[in-house]
Design a protein that fits this description.
This is Protease inhibitor Inh. With 226 residues, this protein is an alpha+beta fold. The chain has five helices and 17 strands.
């Protein structure tokens, strides 16, 4: 009798699992911890997406900090993917819809400001680049190394909301001086340093007061100085 009962339990378990649909690859690729931050430079918060079913959706777990920083994200309990990640409240209402453009970064529509960005988390990164908050003194250097070139970022009357004027100081490494950097622009979650005639450096947040070069070649970081 005991053997028959055990066999029945095993048969029931195997039959129930046989009908379970495999998790789509685009869902698996989205699982993990993400930072959601707005384009106004305010601190964002983190949300963990899992492949655990939540009805017809998937489980989403916001961090405690979301309650104060991004209340809409704090209400999220589920998510799905439709050309981008969508977050839903327990009642099924869609809270935020992220789309991917040619830059592949996920963000909400600019028609409903502030724009929310959704990026993979990095230690120490809690907000999106915001031009007014970047005014001040910085240095370009190899990671953890001495200064290669001091930079001063400032706002001038000709600068737009996402732009800054850049001046290099001395001494400045010849490889950087040749770029003739003179302006900065925040482009979504990226900080672009532009020079003349058509030179540039692309940086992304790497810490509370630091950015790291995105392209290949020798690593380079921009760090705020006291």
């Amino acid at each position: 009798m005991r053997d028959r009962l055990l066999a029945a339990i095993l048969l029931l378990a195997s039959s129930s699992g046989a009908g379970a649909a495999p998790t789509p690859s685009f869902i698996k690729d989205s699982v993990g911890e993400w930072l959601i931050a707005t384009d106004d430079g305010r601190p964002g918060c983190r949300v963990t997406l899992s492949a655990e079913p939540a009805g017809k959706l998937w489980r989403a777990t916001p961090a405690e900090a979301c309650a104060a920083r991004l209340p809409a994200v704090a209400r999220a309990s589920a998510w799905d993917y439709q050309s981008g990640i969508r977050l839903f409240a327990p009642d099924g209402k869609m809270l935020l819809e992220f789309g991917e453009d040619e830059t592949t970064i996920m963000k909400t529509s600019f028609e409903a400001p502030p724009v929310h960005f959704m990026v993979r988390t990095k230690p120490g990164v809690e907000r999106a680049p915001y031009a007014p908050a970047l005014v001040g003194s910085w240095v370009l250097r190899r990671p953890g190394g001495p200064s290669l070139c001091p930079l001063t970022l400032a706002r001038s009357p000709k600068d737009g909301e996402t732009e800054l004027t850049l001046k290099t100081g001395t001494p400045c490494d010849p490889a950087i001086a040749r770029l003739k950097l003179d302006s900065v622009r925040v482009e979504d979650f990226t900080l672009m340093l532009y020079g003349k005639p058509e030179t540039s450096l692309s940086l992304e947040p790497s810490g509370p007061e630091s950015f790291a070069k995105r392209e290949g070649g020798k690593p380079l970081e921009m760090v705020r100085t006291p």
